[in-house]
Design brief:
Strand order of the largest sheet: 2-1-7-5-6
CATH topology of the largest domain: Rossmann fold
Helix content: 25-40%
Protein name: Periplasmic [Fe] hydrogenase large subunit
Number of domains: 3
Pfam families: Fe_hyd_lg_C, Fe_hyd_SSU, Fer2_4, Fer4, NADH-G_4Fe-4S_3
GO molecular function: 2 iron, 2 sulfur cluster binding; 4 iron, 4 sulfur cluster binding; ferredoxin hydrogenase activity; iron ion binding
Enzyme class: oxidoreductase
Keywords: 2Fe-2S, 4Fe-4S, Iron, Iron-sulfur, Metal-binding, Oxidoreductase, Repeat
Largest sheet: 5 strands, mixed
Bound molecules: 2 iron/2 sulfur/6 carbonyl/1 water inorganic cluster, iron/sulfur cluster
Strand content: 15-25%
Length: about 575
C-alpha cells in the first residue's frame, strides 16, 4: 500500500492504483469521457484521449490525466484547483468546438455524457467556433446508426468491439482534422463483420452510435385503422424497463409493461416467452435426436442473432452445429401470422408484429431472407427497451402508476424456463429442464442448474447426469469468450454435448438496446437476479408443461420437429 493525499484527504491505496480510482475511494468524482472500466467483463478503455480528467500533482509542471496516471508513495494531488478546472473546461470546450449543437433534437438528449459534463462544468457558450468535421451517416444495417459527426474519439467502441467482442470492426480512420473512429475504408456497417450486438452503442458516450429507430413506423401502424398491431415482449424487458422511469434496477415490471402496451394501442399484448417455450420443445427434441446419433454434437443454441452472424462470419466450417431453431421472437412472428391469424380469423396481411427487444441485432435479424415466409417478414418492427420507454413518455403515460395487467392469450402464456432465456445460461438451463425429463422419463425434482448461472465467468462449464450419461455443457457470453470456446471445439481441445452462446456479456439483460447503465454492471446483475426471481414465482417452470404451447401443437403444428414445425420454426445458416 502507498500513501497519497487528494484535496487534503489522506488515504492508502494499492500500488498501481490510478489517480482516478484513488479519488473515487474518497468520493471525489473526476469527470472523464473516454475512460471506462468494466472490470467484470475485462474491458478497460484507458486511452487517455479526452484529457478531461486533468488534475494537479504537486511537484509536476504539467497537469496529469487522472485515468492514466498511477499514484506513487507520498503523491499530493489536487483535483479542484483553478488551473485544473480551467484546463478541464477548455478540453470540453475544444470537444464542443467540433461537435454538433443539436442537443434539443439529439437521440441521446438527457443520456449524453458530453452534454452532462458540459453542464456540470458550467459551460454556457461555444468558445471556439469554427470549422466542423462532417461525415457520411450510416444506417445501412437497419439496426445500428452511425453518426461520426458526434464521435469524440474516446475509443470506447473500439475497445469494446476489438477486445471484448473480438470483431475488430473499428479503428481510427483518416488523418488530422478528419480523423474519426469507423470501420476500415469507412465501409457501410452492413458490409463489415459487425454482428450488430450493439455493445459499442452501450458504451458510446454521445450519439455517435445509436440504434436505427422504428418508433415512428410503429406509431404509423398503430394509427392505421387497417392494421391489427400486436406486441411481443422479450424476457429481459420486464426487468429493465422500470429503470427508464426511475425504478430501482431489478424491479420486475411485467404487469405495468403489459398495461403500457395496451394503452399505446396494441390490439394484443403477447409474450416472446411463449415462443421461448416453443423453442425449447423444438430444441430439446433436436438435442435428444443428436444425442441418439442423428446429427453432430455439440448442439449450439441459436437464439441470439448477433451470435449467429458471428459464427457465419468467423467459423463457417462449424455451421452444422447450431440448432436449426429460429430465435423465439422469430418463431413468434411465424406463429402469429399463421396459427393466431387462423384461430382468430384475422387476415395475416393485416397483422403487424412489433417485437420489444433489449437487442439491436434483432432489427437486422427480421430482415434476413431465410427468415421470411414467401418474401414477407414474420416480424415487422423491432423496437428496443429504450424506444419503448420513449413511446410511453410520448403518450403521456405515467408508467409507475399503471396497474398490473396480464398478457393476452393464447400467445401470452409462459413458464419460468422461458423467463430465464434473458440471462446468460438461461436458455441451456431451460433446455435441460425439458431434455432431462424427456430423455429419462423421470420428473426433475430440482429444476435449478446453478452450474450454468452467473455473470462473472465469461466461460462456464457444467456436468449434468442424464441416466448413465454425463452431459458436458458449455456456456459463453460475450463474443470474445464465444470465440475462445469455438476455437477449442474446432481444434478438438474441448468437447461438449450442448453449448449456449449469447453475444452480449450477461446475455440479453445487457443487450445493446437496454437502458444505458453508464458502466455500472451492478445494474446488469440486478436484472439477472430479477429474472431468476420471476422464474421462481411462476407456477410452471418447464417449457413442455406450458398448456397453451401443448394446445398449439395439438391444434396446429402436430409433431414436435415434424414437417410443419420445420416449415414454421426452423431455419438455416449462410456462410
Ligand atoms: Fe433475448 Fe430471446 S432471450 S434472444 O436473449 O432466445 O433480444 O430478452 O427475446 O428471440 O425469448 C433478446 C431477451 C429474446 C429471442 C427470447 C431468445
Ligand atoms: Fe462491434 Fe458489436 Fe459494435 Fe458491431 S455492434 S461494431 S460487432 S461492438
Amino acid at each position: 500500500m502507498i500513501n497519497v493525499t487528494i484535496n487534503d484527504i489522506k488515504l492508502q491505496v494499492p500500488e498501481g492504483t490510478t489517480i482516478l480510482d484513488a479519488a473515487k475511494m474518497v468520493n471525489i468524482n473526476i469527470p472523464t469521457l473516454c475512460h471506462l472500466n468494466l472490470h467484470d467483463i475485462k474491458m478497460v478503455n484507458r486511452t487517455a484521449s479526452c484529457r478531461v480528467c486533468l488534475v494537479e500533482v504537486e511537484g509536476r509542471r504539467n497537469l496529469a490525466p487522472a485515468c492514466a496516471t498511477e499514484c506513487f508513495d507520498g503523491m499530493i494531488i489536487r483535483t479542484n484547483t483553478k488551473r485544473a478546472i480551467r484546463a478541464r473546461r477548455t478540453m470540453v470546450e475544444l470537444l464542443l468546438s467540433d461537435h454538433p449543437t443539436d442537443c434539443l433534437v439529439c437521440e441521446k438528449n438527457g443520456n449524453c455524457d458530453l452534454q452532462r459534463i458540459a453542464a456540470e462544468l458550467g459551460i454556457r457558450k461555444i468558445r471556439f467556433e469554427g470549422e466542423q468535421s462532417t461525415y457520411q451517416k450510416d444506417s445501412s444495417s437497419g439496426a445500428l446508426y452511425r453518426n461520426p459527426d458526434k464521435c469524440i474519439m474516446c475509443r470506447r467502441c473500439e475497445t469494446m468491439c476489438n477486445e471484448v467482442q473480438t470483431c475488430s470492426v473499428y479503428s481510427a480512420i483518416d488523418r488530422g482534422f478528419e480523423t474519426v473512429v469507423g470501420p476500415a475504408f469507412n465501409l457501410p456497417m452492413l458490409d463489415t463483420q459487425c454482428t450488430f450486438c450493439g455493445q459499442c452503442v452501450s458504451v458510446c458516450p454521445t450519439a455517435a452510435l445509436t440504434e436505427v429507430s422504428y418508433v415512428q413506423d410503429v406509431w404509423n401502424a398503430l394509427h392505421d385503422p387497417d392494421k391489427y398491431v400486436i406486441a411481443q415482449t422479450a424476457p429481459a424487458i420486464r426487468v429493465a424497463l422500470g429503470e427508464e422511469f426511475g425504478l430501482k434496477p431489478g424491479t420486475i415490471v411485467t404487469g405495468k409493461m403489459v398495461a403500457a402496451l395496451r394503452r399505446l394501442g396494441f390490439k394484443k399484448v403477447f409474450d416472446t416467452d411463449f415462443a421461448a417455450d416453443v423453442t425449447i420443445m423444438e430444441e430439446a427434441k433436436e438435442f435428444i435426436d443428436r444425442l441418439n446419433g442423428k446429427g453432430r454434437l455439440p448442439i449450439l443454441t441459436s437464439c441470439c442473432p448477433s451470435w449467429v452472424k458471428f459464427i457465419e462470419h468467423q467459423f463457417p466450417e462449424l455451421l452444422d452445429i447450431p440448432s436449426t431453431c429460429k430465435s423465439p421472437h422469430m418463431m413468434f412472428g411465424a406463429i402469429a401470422k399463421t396459427y393466431f391469424a387462423e384461430k382468430f380469423n384475422i387476415p395475416a396481411d393485416k397483422i403487424v408484429v412489433v417485437s420489444v427487444m433489449p437487442c439491436i441485432a434483432k432489427k437486422y435479424e427480421i430482415q434476413r431472407e431465410e427468415l421470411k415466409s414467401d418474401g414477407v417478414q414474420n416480424v415487422d418492427y423491432v423496437i428496443t427497451t429504450r424506444e419503448f420507454a420513449k413511446m410511453i413518455r410520448e403518450a403521456g403515460i405515467d408508467f409507475t402508476k399503471l396497474p398490473d395487467e396480464d398478457f393476452d392469450n393464447p400467445l401470452g402464456e409462459s413458464t419460468g424456463a422461458s423467463v430465464i432465456f434473458g440471462t446468460t445460461g438461461g436458455v441451456i438451463e431451460a433446455a435441460l429442464r425439458t431434455a432431462y425429463e424427456w430423455a429419462t422419463g423421470e420428473t426433475l425434482q430440482d429444476v435449478e442448474f446453478h452450474g450454468v448461472r452467473g455473470f462473472e465467468d465469461g466461460l462456464k462449464e457444467a456436468t449434468v447426469k442424464l441416466k448413465d450419461m454425463e452431459l458436458k455443457i458449455g456456456v459463453a457470453h460475450g463474443l470474445g469468450n464465444a470465440r475462445r470456446l469455438l476455437e477449442d471445439i474446432r481444434d478438438g481441445k474441448r468437447f461438449y454435448h450442448a453449448i449456449e452462446i449469447m453475444a452480449c456479456p450477461g446475455g440479453c439483460i445487457d443487450g445493446g438496446g437496454q437502458p444505458y447503465h453508464h458502466g455500472n454492471l451492478e445494474i446488469v446483475k440486478a436484472r439477472m437476479n430479477a429474472l431468476y426471481e420471476e422464474d421462481r414465482r411462476k407456477p410452471l417452470r418447464k417449457s413442455h408443461e406450458n398448456p397453451a404451447v401443448l394446445k398449439m401443437y395439438e391444434e396446429y403444428i402436430g409433431e414436435i420437429g415434424g414437417h410443419k414445425a420445420h416449415k414454421l420454426l426452423h431455419t438455416h445458416y449462410t456462410p
